[in-house]
C-alpha cells in the first residue's frame, strides 16, 4: 500500500517540478513582450505627446511594464544626463538570453534621444519590429520546449513509480 502511495506521490511531484520548470522558461517570453509594450509606449509619447527624455522615463517608471528597469534608468539618467550609459548600466540586471536581441537594444538605446523626432520614430519602428520578431521566435520555440519538459517529467515520474512498485 505504501509503495502505491509513494509511486503516486512521485508522479505528482515530477509533474509539479515540470510545471515549475515551464514557468521559469516562460519568463523570457513575457520580458520581451513587456519590452515591446514599453517601446510602443515610448513611440506614442514621442509621436503624439512630444515628451522629453526625462518625461518619457518618468512615465515608464510610473506605469511601464518593466518599471524596475525604467526607474533605474531614470535615476542613472538624472545623475549623468547620458541615456547610453544609463541603459548599459541598468540593463545588466535585465534578463535576456538572446545576445543578438540584447545587442539590438543596446545599439538602439546608445543613440536614443540624440536625433530629431522623425529619426527617433524611425529607429523606434525598427526596434519594435525586431521585438515582435523576437516574441514570435520565442513563442514558437517555447511551445516545443514546454511540451518536451512536461512529457519528460511526467514519464520520469511514472518510471520512478514503476521502479518503486
Give keywords.
6 helices, single chain, mainly alpha, 165 residues
What do you see in this structure?
It is a single chain. This protein is mainly alpha-helical. Helices cover 84% and strands 0% of the residues. Helix 2 (53-63) packs antiparallel against helix 3 (67-80) and helix 5 (99-110) runs antiparallel to helix 6.
In short:
This protein is an all-alpha fold and about 160 residues long. It is built from six helices and no strands.
Into which percentage range does the β-strand content fall? under 5%
Q: H/E series, N to C?
A: HHHHHH
Number of helices: 6
Question: N-to-C terminal Cα separation, in Å?
Answer: 10 Å
Percent of residues in helices: over 70%
Average residue pLDDT? 81
Shape: elongated
* Main β sheet profile: none
Structural class: mainly alpha
What is the total tally of β strands? 0
Question: In terms of quaternary structure, what is this?
Answer: single chain
- Rounded to an integer in angstroms, the radius of gyration calculated over CA atoms is 22 Å
Low-confidence stretches: none
